[in-house]
Amino acid sequence: MSDFVIEGRNLTRAYRSGGGLFSPKREVIALKGVSFAVPRGKTLAIVGESGCGKSTLARIMTLIDPATSGELLIDGQVIDIRQALPPDVRRKVQIVFQNPYGSLNPRQKVGDMLMEQLLLNTNHTPAQRRELAIAMLQKVGLLAEHFTRYPHMFSGGQRQRLAIARALMVTPKILVLDEPVSALDLSVQAQVLNLLADLQGEFGLTYVFISHDLSVVRHIADEVMVMYLGEVVEKGPAAQVFARLQHSYTQTLFAATPRADVATIKARLARKLAQV
């Protein structure tokens, strides 16, 4: 078995766009030879601004879209979604989106939403499905009484916990987290990040954490991969990348990221007092 639970080798993705009566369609290359490898139980953070290709890469990782060329490997097995896949492959990788309410069915009770995953993927009895769903609610910090409620009855942070619970119902090995805390306020962000860290330790999960916020990434990532216009411009252990930013684009991203540590706040106050 491979040491890497998910791996990409020279992945490219091209789209055909435009075209009309007098103009041909043109090819847009969203990914340009992206390679990565994530060890089991570790977190790879993919960083970049909108349009850099990170969401396109997420769709390939989660088996939604095929790569135009290159190889995607899960547990050392080359995966091509244009061919028939073993039933368990899609269960190995799940995704949590930025907007939890948009990914939850507003007409479906929370318990039914969680049990549906088990109904489609296991042979458990209704009683077993209910028991497992309630246990998962409690693991993500919610209550058994939430089982019969609807998504609109929860706060944004609670909805994201529900989205995480649903993704974990089929016991995946890989969780792709696409901007999972960017829509939450700072205090709730910290709670969800702590929850993700606890779940990773408990279930041995491998995370691919997609974000544009370096202040979040530096606290959760083992490895960082910075993307710009479909290419990887910087990659390495998180401590190494943050200690010495090599690429000018990474330096620009870091400079644009607000910092909220005590030393920075004190320095900002001192500058304001000096101006009075």
Please tell me about this protein's structure.
It is a single chain. The chain is an alpha/beta fold and 276 residues long. 38% of the residues lie in helices and 25% in strands. The protein contains ten helices and ten strands. It has helices at residues 54-61, 100-103, 110-121, 126-139, 156-168, 186-203, 214-220, 238-243, 248-256, 262-275, and strands spanning 4-17, 26-39, 43-47, 69-74, 77-79, 93-96, 174-178, 206-211, 223-228, 231-237. A six-stranded mixed β-sheet has the order 6-7-8-3-9-10, sandwiched between helices. Helix 3 (110-121) crosses helix 4 (126-139). The chain is globular.
What's the gist of this structure?
With 276 residues, this protein is an alpha/beta fold.
Query: What is the arithmetic mean of pLDDT?
Result: 88
Q: Unreliable stretches, pLDDT < 50, 5 or more residues?
A: none
Encode the helix/strand succession as letters: EEEHEEEHHHHEHEHEEHHH
Total beta strand runs: 10
Identify the strand order in the major beta sheet: 6-7-8-3-9-10
For the sheet with most strands, the description reads: 6 strands, mixed
**Outline:** globular
Q: Determine the number of helices (DSSP H or I, runs of at least 4 residues).
A: 10
Q: How far apart lie the N and C ends?
A: 64 Å
Given the helix and strand composition, which structural class is it? Answer: alpha/beta
Gyration radius, rounded: 21 Å
State the main characteristics:
276 residues; six-stranded mixed beta sheet; four-stranded antiparallel beta sheet; 25% strand
